[in-house]
Batch of 4 targets.
Target 1
Amino acid sequence: MISLNPILLLLISVFLFIFFLFKFVTAYGDFTLMSKKQPKREEIEDKVVWITGASRGIGEILAKQLASLGAKLIISARNEDDLIRVRTQLKGKHAPDGVKVLPLDLSSGEDSLRQAVEKAESFFPDSGVDYMIHNAAHERPKTSVLDVTEEGLKATFDVNVPGTITLTRLLAPFMLRGGRGHFVVMSSAAGKTPAPGSAVYSASKYALNGYFHSLRSELCRKGIQVTVVCPGPIETSNNAGSNVPSERRVSSEKCAELTIIAATHGLKEVWISNQPVLVVMYLVQYMPTIGYWLMDKVGQNRVEAAANKGSTYSLSLLLGKKKAA
Ligand SMILES: NC(=O)c1ccc[n+]([C@@H]2O[C@H](COP(=O)([O-])OP(=O)(O)OC[C@H]3O[C@@H](n4cnc5c(N)ncnc54)[C@H](OP(=O)(O)O)[C@@H]3O)[C@@H](O)[C@H]2O)c1
């Protein structure tokens, strides 16, 4: 029998602890996602992928990466000119010529969304839509919960919740007829943890998480898959350069790449974020008493930091007021 020297055992344990601590501190996603290195190209090539919110930000980058992996794309948002601009930049087996531009407004109601679904299905009648990437969202500047207006509440919810759910409800029967379909939902870290200053946005993302995990549990045996993606702060064309230098945002390229990895590996939920948001997500999920205690320390400071255009992700929010940048 091999007997291990206790000192050697201790050294190995310390080494492993430091190794995993380093991995965790430098991670930009949850452990399962980090273990998957590459997208599965065969799950994307020649598949029909419909992306909402593809006119800018993460959606635009998703369109570029999916086009280069050989997807047949349908790109949607409200502004048709922006979509046409995006289409001209796409390169791939079916891009730019095979890319379909389908303008839509998620808050326009069931009749108009039904027409959009029928049109999307008619673009590729042989296969129908394989992946629906629900990426579009409405987000307002951060404000205190006390300053939320009814108009702001409706504007956020109409797009993020009823609009997204209605589109899903109308598309799912087509997918069920074909025996397969995959919804990829751009949720947020704000759909997993409190988001002081963004309570309504957070509520809309929690709602999406609940809806899509329930949908999967009802329909997975009929070939429907769901991947819920929860990014923390992401660097996009909207916030590049204009934000606080101390904020460590994951690039939209990395966020899009990890989203495609998650979807093609069939992961059910993934988190994409640098620290400290990632550790807060783990705490709220697995040690809620500590996680919520921590967020209570941050809450008011974060609203004040947002009002002063300071960092809303800094560790210093734990300690006191963040000065304006
Ligand atoms: N950026 C981040 O730090 C971050 C972090 C966590 C989660 N997320 C999530 O990731 C997704 C993409 O974020 P992003 O920052 O890239 O967004 P973004 O730059 O603000 O782009 C939003 C997209 O949604 C479209 N859109 C907005 N309202 C719409 C409506 N009523 N109907 C149809 N399309 C509409 C916009 O195009 P039109 O204006 O032309 O319609 C645009 O293409 C969102 O779901 C967001 O909540 C982002």
Target 2
Amino acid sequence: MYNILIGCYGHETNTSTPDITELFRFGGEENIIDPDGTRLYNRGFYDVLKKRDDVRIIPSVAAWACPYGKVDAKADEYISSKLLEAIKNAGKLDGILLSLHGAMVTTASEDGEGDLLEKVRNAIGNDIPIGVMVDLHANITEKMIKNASWIINYDTYPHIDAFERAAECAEIMLDTLDGRINPVMAHVKLPLLPEFIPTTKGAGLQLANAMFEIEKMPSVISASISYGFFCADIYESGAAVIVIADNDRALAEKNAAMLAEKMWDLRHELKRNFTSIDEALDCIEAEPDLYPVILADCCDNPGGGATGDATHILHRLTARNVKHAVVAFIYDPETVAAAEKTGIGNVGEFCIGSKIFPEITGAPLKTKAYVKAISDGHFDTGREAAVIMGDGNLNTSKNWPPVSSQHGKVAALDLDGVIVLVASTQAQTWNDYAIRSCGIMPENQTVIAVKSTVHFRHCFEKYAAKIYEIWSPGLSEQLVSKANLTRTRRPIYPLDEM
Ligand SMILES: [Zn+2]
């Protein structure tokens, strides 16, 4: 019988967001325990392990918070202690599987996952394997490498393969315990801060293909590319590649070096180009037959640690009197409450958005507006979506990205042709369901502004006539050159010409 403990604990920390990520953002004390091992990404481990009747699954924690500012050290201490307590109470252990983000910074430490893995390693000694899955945007640190037996990350951005990668991580554990393989890991850390490049096209796709070619080689178990998360301004921030081979260190090292070289050669293409709001609106006016056009408000993406209440795009849409425009979404629970009080079908005075850091996200928009709809944010997709929603930040089903809304109660306010959807929960625009839930057909709008960097593409790309990626001031900075990084080691590209 194999005794395998599984746990999930993740946060992508944006160190430029001044607020602290407290325990309640992880769901609070009562929600961080996973009673049966099926919550969040534990599910990917669980489904593989469950198939074997010689495995005892030992659940522990399932704690995940939407990206935001540094994690409160007390919250980290609490969640870590629950994981360590589960390890201590497990009795004899044969392996540990952890799903982490890999870019967590706490108020006490800039290497959240490195510290966590060190504590876990110290608790169990060197003989028990620790298999780790991290996000594609992990900042891989020396401490993580030293204390994990193997690390694999998501291969895709949009991150549509987290459950498959968790399953892969669990398969590696079973193959190891059965004695079929002996995983050895090589990694190369690059002096490189990539911007948020999707893996579906261009340099991102080329790199993904190179990685898959390596994975096809005999004796290679897994290859991973971590793009890093430069908004977590830490010494070891940035890109890394990892190759895991079966009992063959030279093979792992050779291929890790090859993949790193490929990434380095493509470094000039791991940058993004942005459009200003008015440039995009000029193009939309010039091409009225192209609709809907998506404006991705990349720098105000709650999925990257931003507030999600920036009003820059909203101001320009109303000032330019654009018709059939939808802003999805502005996080502002006060305005949702005010809309409820005003009532559907009535006109009221509102002060919309930019309540948290208005010096960055623009002034709130003070305006009269017609309350068109108030919705629970959910759109009934019937038999399409058998989805169990989790803690409001991440779905707990195997379906990913989330196929349901995560915006909480939503108010649709009509500002004479510009409809702003005001949300009561901070979440990025994963999909269009909450738009539809307000009686709006997204396909027929002139413009839809979304709060997301890349993940929105999974839903909106199907019918978008055009997509503009917008740069405007916000807390999820997209350009390394504007990020004001002080902790990141130097020299590093593109901050330094290399
Ligand atoms: Zn990511």
Target 3
Amino acid sequence: MNKKQFVTKSSLQPAPKVLVSCRDKDGKDNALAVGYCGNCSYDPPMVMVGIVPSRHSYQMVKDTKCFVVNLPTKDYQKEFDYLGSVSARDEDKLAKMNIKTADASKVNAPILVDCPVNIECTVVDSIMTGSHEMFIGKIENINADENIVNEDGSIDYSKLDLI
Ligand SMILES: Cc1cc2nc3c(=O)[nH]c(=O)nc-3n(C[C@H](O)[C@H](O)[C@H](O)COP(=O)(O)O)c2cc1C
């Protein structure tokens, strides 16, 4: 066997690329790029997102205990890169990029309207794994563009060119 043995970070690939949007306790909205995320229960449906405590969004999610996972498509790459490299501590990212938002239906956070799928979650638990705090989000509602929803209510991901 000719294998090198070592430990490295982010070893599961491809990693998902999502935008997590949130709102602070004063009503200010924000979003950040997240790669540490995944499905973590189907009954009840839940997802988890990992946020590093130094992110501006971290305290927002801690305070309001909810977030929205938005799935960006390739035509949203510029916005994704910006939201994943600039902090709301330094500027109002959503205003700067003219990002269209709307209130989520079931949680106190914004959805990013131009992402075709927006998953509204409430935080039911969290665990500090190391660098990230993994927030377990119970899915309260999903908003999806009408043209990608199958008759049985599932999402046709083959129609999406996700980042
Ligand atoms: C591809 C990509 C994946 C990222 N994944 C994460 C992640 O899983 N968790 C995290 O806290 N930050 C992640 N980041 C970094 C944040 O999105 C970035 O630090 C952002 O500017 C934080 O914004 P905020 O300070 O306004 O919350 C990622 C960035 C990129 C480009």
Target 4
Amino acid sequence: MNSNKRHKKVALSGNGDCRVVFCPDCGTLEINLGASTIRTNSESLNILSSVLNHAKVRLAQMQDAAPANGNIQQMRLGRIH
Ligand SMILES: [Zn+2]
């Protein structure tokens, strides 16, 4: 497990505290979220990307479905314990 070789990381994308960094030398992808770093690979990045997109769509659907007077809050209150 010697890694004396210099790894030149490239920032692929970034916005605020969120960044995706790629290392062409070993093919490692890093997702930086504030103080947290998730090491991953391109396959996982694709999965994460589609899961996040799906979550966004579902969240928008739920928010659209919720009446302005807060039906979702009532449902949540009824489900506590
Ligand atoms: Zn590397």
